[in-house]
Design goal:
Blueprint lengths: L1 E8 L8 H9 L2 E8 L6 E8 L3 H13 L3 E4 L4 E3 L19 E4 L4 E4 L9 H5 L5 E3 L4
Antiparallel strand pairs: 1-3, 1-4, 2-3, 5-8, 6-7
Keywords: 4Fe-4S, Iron, Iron-sulfur, Metal-binding
Protein name: NIL domain-containing protein
GO molecular function, one term: 4 iron, 4 sulfur cluster binding
Length: 137
C-alpha cells in the first residue's frame, strides 16, 4: 500500500525525527521526493509512503495528525483544466513520472494523478496554462 503525500510541518515540528519514527514505529518505507523545509520554519515535504497494509498506513497518518503534521494526498494537489486543454502533448514530453501521457489511439491527453511527483514540469510546459500545482499549504 503506497501513496504520495505532502506533509506540512510547523516551526515546532520541523526539527523532530518524524520520518525516522514512521520507519521505526510504524514500519513505513519513506521515499523523499521533494523538500521545502528550513530549520525553525514551516515547510512541506513530498514523500512516498509505502506500508504493508492500509491499516499501518492509516495509523501512521493518524499519528502525524496528533503531532501537528498535516498531510494530503499529492493527487489532490495537481489541477488540470481539461476543458481548456488542446491535447498538444507538450506536457507529456516533460513528464518523466508518466503521470501525463498522450493516448495515441485518440490523441487525447491522459492524466494519472497517482503517478504525479509534483515536479512542476507540466505547469511550465503547457502553452495554454491548463496545469496548476499547489505544493504548499
Amino acid at each position: 500500500m503506497a501513496g504520495k503525500y505532502v506533509l506540512g510541518y510547523s516551526a515546532e515540528t520541523v526539527s523532530e525525527p518524524i520520518l525516522w519514527k514512521l520507519t521505526k514505529d510504524y514500519d513505513i518505507r519513506v521515499n523523499i521526493l521533494r523538500a521545502e523545509i528550513s530549520p525553525g520554519q514551516e515547510g512541506n515535504l513530498l514523500v512516498e509512503l509505502d506500508a504493508e497494509s492500509e491499516a499501518k498506513l492509516n495509523a501512521a497518518l493518524q499519528w502525524l495528525e496528533t503531532i501537528g503534521v498535516t498531510w494530503v494526498n499529492v493527487a489532490k494537489r495537481l489541477s488540470w483544466d481539461e476543458d481548456r486543454c488542446i491535447d498538444c502533448g507538450g506536457c507529456s514530453g516533460v513528464c518523466f513520472s508518466g503521470a501525463i501521457t498522450l493516448d495515441r489511439s485518440n490523441w487525447k491527453l491522459v492524466v494519472d494523478r497517482d503517478k504525479c511527483i509534483a515536479c512542476g514540469g507540466c505547469v511550465k510546459a503547457c502553452p495554454m496554462g491548463c496545469f496548476t500545482l499547489d505544493f504548499g499549504e
